[in-house]
């Protein structure tokens, strides 16, 4: 599966990207995610909330399962787990995201992306389940990534974390009040209270996250806690998900490398498709360059090999110039999602993308 397809998979359904970082070459899933509410920084260092899209309940899910999940989400244990996850992740980072896996797991886009991720993972999910008792697709309710370090919240009772890896078993080591480290040398995962998974990472990074949760080290008060499904990324990451033509991509890449800049995003997933809201922050020159590139792409400046599959996505762009940002919104209905993901979205063979990128 090509890099572009995997990046778009993450854009449309990062929630299930937890499978990728656990079983597909232990890689961080590419950004972007899905959101009920996002947070965006302001030039003064504070933050303002992104507009909150309407929450998308899993209409395809069994009503009894939805009721059970809602009851679990409201339990004191789950409330404490969500707070612990946000505290662990309240640190600065160039790329920060959090995803509400449970909310979109049963939606039509979620199921399509799940089929593609299972195709990519091969037998690894079944092997992991049999070896350790861990099923990331069923047990993870939230996940996040900060600069390549993954976090997950879920129901992890009974998992044998020492047997997570194919080779040597990981060595368990208690840490703090409710933490356990499972390490091979100084690298591995951390578990907190059987509901937070921290890592793959080195010992120091895992211990630092548990220290924040248990109050030995304060979370960074200048960093807004991530909520719902939200995040921020370097503006240059847009080049990984927009199928721009070479004539458009080249000047934009030069501008982004020179100027930098950040984007913040919010995405909702429902059975009718995916709704995305992205804000590009930066000075007037940067925003002007991004705005011009998006307008050119919408008017046909698309990689010819990708135009048939992704042209409809760009045609739906709504671009608004704000006082301090450029707002881009679009809706990707299921037909476009199936075009983007390819045959794997229907469970068919031949899922490797033909989108022409490495």
Question: Can you characterise this structure?
Answer:
The chain has 358 residues and is an alpha+beta fold. It has 14 helices and 14 strands. The protein has helices spanning 3-13, 18-23, 63-73, 76-88, 101-104, 108-121, 124-132, 136-139, 203-214, 238-241, 246-259, 284-298, 307-315, 334-341, and strands at residues 39-41, 47-49, 96-100, 140-146, 149-154, 171-175, 179-184, 187-192, 196-202, 230-234, 262-270, 273-281, 318-321, 325-333. The chain has a 12-stranded antiparallel beta sheet, sandwiched between helices. Helix 4 crosses helix 9, helix 6 runs parallel beside helix 14 (334-341) and helix 11 runs antiparallel to helix 12. The protein is globular.
Rg calculated over all Cα atoms: 20 Å
End-to-end C-alpha gap: 9 Å
Largest beta-sheet characterization:
12 strands, antiparallel
Helix content: 25-40%
Unreliable segments of 5+ consecutive residues: 1-60, 351-358
Mean pLDDT: 74
List how many beta strands DSSP finds.
14
Across the major sheet, the strand order is: 6-7-8-9-5-4-3-10-11-12-14-13
Strand content: 15-25%
Write the layout of secondary structure elements.
Blueprint (H helix, E strand, L loop, with lengths): L2 H11 L4 H6 L15 E3 L5 E3 L13 H11 L2 H13 L7 E5 H4 L3 H14 L2 H9 L3 H4 E7 L2 E6 L16 E5 L3 E6 L2 E6 L3 E7 H12 L15 E5 L3 H4 L4 H14 L2 E9 L2 E9 L2 H15 L8 H9 L2 E4 L3 E9 H8 L17
Antiparallel strand pairs: 1-2, 3-4, 3-10, 4-5, 5-9, 6-7, 7-8, 8-9, 10-11, 11-12, 12-14, 13-14
Helix pairs in contact: 4-9, 6-14, 11-12
Q: Summed up, what is this model?
A:
With 358 residues, the protein is of the alpha+beta class.
